[in-house]
Amino acid sequence: MRAQQWTTVSTTLPKALYLNTSAPVPSSKALKPYEVLVHVHFSSLNPIDYKIPELPLVGRFAISKPAIPCVDFCGIVVAAGSSRKDLSPGQWVFGMLDIPKYGACAEYIVVSSKEGCVALPGGAKPEEAATLGVAGLTAYQSIVPQLSEIVKKNGDSKPKVFINGGSGGTGIFAIQVAKAKGCFVATTCSARNMELCYQLGADQVIDYTKQNVVATLEKVARSQNGPFDLVVDLVGGATPLYWKSHRYLAPGAEFVGVGANFSLQFALDIAKIFLWPRFLGGGQRKYVLFTGVPNAEQYSAVAEMMAEGKVRAVIEEIYSLEDLRRAFERLRTGRVSGKLVVKVAQ
Asked: Over the range 55-87, which residues count as b (16 or more CB within 10 Å of their CB) and which as e?
């Protein structure tokens, strides 16, 4: 089978990639009860796909070699283990592989987690479903579970959600999921992506390159008769927004940090947030460091939203498997609007 692989990352992941046209095909005869052999048609890229392999120690020792990048997938079931009675050969499925196992940029994969391989509902396009593995699920998990408590607290008042970074891979889904759940949504992006964010349903879009984000959020909160009920930070390292969040975020509300990076400075910033007591001038709002895990029920929920037209993928470009290096180079610019998809099957 064809697969993009790497063995050593000395600088960046794109430079380490090579196409293996005779990689071994996983055997359907060796499947464990909950495993599924999938013929991959599409994958999509996430920052986690290159950030972990590029870490000196983790990339070298925690990932089996030769490694195959990416975790998002959408494809067709070839064979299913004895305990996967819900799936059958020929059925379309989507989800994500375990990290740091990776492996989705190969024509055939074995999905080990029952939670990470879900049937694709009718009406959802495979190339769009391939973008849900990390980004779609992250958007859902960072917003929807918190809404029931917010609604209980606010009564009939519409929940107000601020999404920092609305035009990125996760932001595009976060805007739409929040709107589908009846929220007022404010978000940030650069001027070139403002129209996109409005098209996705955002009620207020802030150009972070020209506007004072905190001051604008304060103004928006006043116009909406109260502060925001939830902040989802998809940018990472945006700690100034947290330290000033008491100016626009309701007491008791959560500031959810999703966009983490692996720098020493980020680690110090997070340590400061958690260790500096509030009564000594520390943060005045609860900070939650997001950690997502595959969840089949939530995957099905967001896929149904997609099938019903409530959520759509924004795909900047679809790359061939042979062109994966260029796709990763584009992802590393940090300027992608939406998602980058890889057509794996020929």
From this structure: eeeebeeebeeebbbbbbbbbbbbbbbeebeeb
